[in-house]
Amino acid sequence: NTISVVGLGYIGLPTAAVIASRQQKVIGVDMNPHVVDTINRGEIHIIEPELDAIVHAAVKKGYMRATTQPEPADAFLIAVPTPFKEENGKQHEPDLSYIEAASKAIAPVLQKGNLVILESTSPVGATEKMTAWLAQARPDLTFPHTHEEDSDIRVAHCPERVLPGHVVRELVENDRVIGGMTEKCSQAATRLYQLFVQGECVTTTARTAEMAKLTENSFRDVNIAFANELSIICDKLGIDVWELIRLANRHPRVNILQPGPGVGGHCIAVDPWFIVSKTPEEAQLIHTARKVNDGKPHWVLDKVKSAVAEFLQENPERNIKDVTIACFGLAFKPNIDDLRESPALAICRNIANWHSGAMCFVEPNIKLLDEELAQHGSLVDQQEAIEKSDVLVMLVDHREFMNSRRLIANGKKIIDTRGVWLIEETRQVPCL
Ligand code: SAJ
To answer: How does pLDDT run across 28-79, given as a tens digit for each residue?
Structure first.
């Protein structure tokens, strides 16, 4: 069996490599020649624990290679991005252009008996759309939407649900939702996943599988929004939200997540919009959760402004131009180097655009600041940042930041969006 994985990014590459590690022949396809060359050298272009060794072994043993042009295979697994775009005055419409381009790229090499799986997180109805694009390009073949069980090509949606930072383990261990366009499509897709998945493969329809994935991430978004809203309420009422959550979570049926500076990454802040754009009237709670989480970085910026004002009031001899602000953490969540859609990074940029004095940034997982931030300050270590700054903004609960409360002298202003310094002794382990 030859399996082709189309899109060699954060999901496609680990999936391709894990399948190849089960001694299956894998052809990876990516439009970016740099990505293809890197992989063919046995190297990787993304950061994910354990992935480099698996890719290296798969390429060296000859089970995996990459190309920019699709080639015939038995199964095609599509793992391309599905961002949102602005359309007809609406800001968060799903952008299926990558799925469309991938469908059109593989259509010419499809053969009777092939299986096509859409793994990209998609709005409800996207798998049907993909099938229609394939059918349009290949009128000589039959597809499940027109020819039910007897189609030449099988099509299914099997959304990925791995957690960045734990991808290699979760790819194998997580259960999979397999939504075939027909029952036979589900069975064909299940056989493929059973090559490398130890979790259970549960079958359903393509539309339910699409909605299941969106539901998982919306569930998390809504729950984080609850924690974020609580943190804003508690700030107003003078209550320590971290203690509050710890106490409430002692109830056997309460499990509140952790507040933070906002929700980042390329999944949780995106996927709920796919539900909202399809059913805007009905998706009230999901929409509000998005707004609460997206509003949190602005709230943090206001807190920083107030802290600077307070500092100047307490230190009338000082001028705003010589107030130094230190930001701790740039990544979108703890213990990774991923800055994509990071609320911490957005907050740093907003502070930098507003503040006329010096700034410094601490991010143990990166070596260089981007040009924009570098204009406003430098990357320094934690101790230096604490010593030389007047206002300290904790944005990401990286493990390196734990137990640093004792380094902070009296008189400095603290904005702690993660409860790292406020509850050091009693802090729970960081959330995954
Ligand atoms: N966050 C909080 N408080 C919390 C938990 C998370 O503020 O208590 C924030 C994080 O700091 C981060 C954001 O939420 O900014 C998202 O982080 P995350 O760890 O919740 O999720 P992702 O985006 O890394 O991965 C999610 C996962 N989905 C779920 O847990 C339901 C993962 O399993 C999915 O595969 C992934 O989205 C995806 O690709 O869709």
So the answer is: 999 999 999 999 999 999 888 899 999 999 999 999 999 999 999 999 999 9
pLDDT, one tens digit per residue, over 221-268 is 999 999 999 999 999 999 999 999 999 999 999 999 999 999 999 899
Q: How far apart are CA 71 and CA 13, in angstroms?
A: 17
Calpha distance 143→131 (Å, rounded)? 7
What are 186's two structure tokens? 């589900």
- Give residue 171's identity as a one-letter amino acid code: L
- CA 268 to ligand 1 centroid distance, Å: 6
* Torsion (CA) 368, 370, 373, 379 in degrees, nearest 10: 0
Contact 139, 121 (CB under 8 A): no
By percentage, how much of the chain surpasses pLDDT 70?
A: 97
193's tokens: 């996943």
End-to-end CA distance of the chain: 36
Q: What is the percentage of the chain residues whose pLDDT exceeds 90?
A: 89
Are residues 351 and 359 in contact, defined by beta-carbon separation less than 8 angstroms?
yes
pTM of the model: 0.93
Nearest CA to ligand 1 atom 38: 267
Instruction: Give 256-270 pLDDT, tens digit per residue.
Output: 999 999 999 989 999
Which residues approach ligand 1 with their CB closer than 6 A? 121, 160-164, 216-217, 220, 224, 257-258, 260, 263-265, 267-268, 332-333, 431
69 alpha carbon – ligand 1 mean position (Å):
33
Comparing CA positions, the residue from 160, 156, 93 lying closest to residue 121 is: 160
What the chain holds in terms of domains, given with CATH numbers, is: 2-199 (3.40.50.720), 220-426 (3.40.50.720)
User: Which residues, in sequence order, are CB contacts of 216 under 8 Å at separation 6+?
Assistant: 161
In the prediction, which pLDDT does 89 show?
Answer: 87
- Cα separation of 309 and 131, whole Å? 58
Residue linked to tokens 């009693």: 426
Residues 124, 210: contact at Cβ < 8 Å? yes
Active-site annotation, residues? 213, 267
**Cβ count near 297 (within 10 Å):** 25
Identity of the amino acid at 321: K
Helix ranges restricted to H, 315-342: none
What are the structure tokens assigned to 377, written together? 């300050």
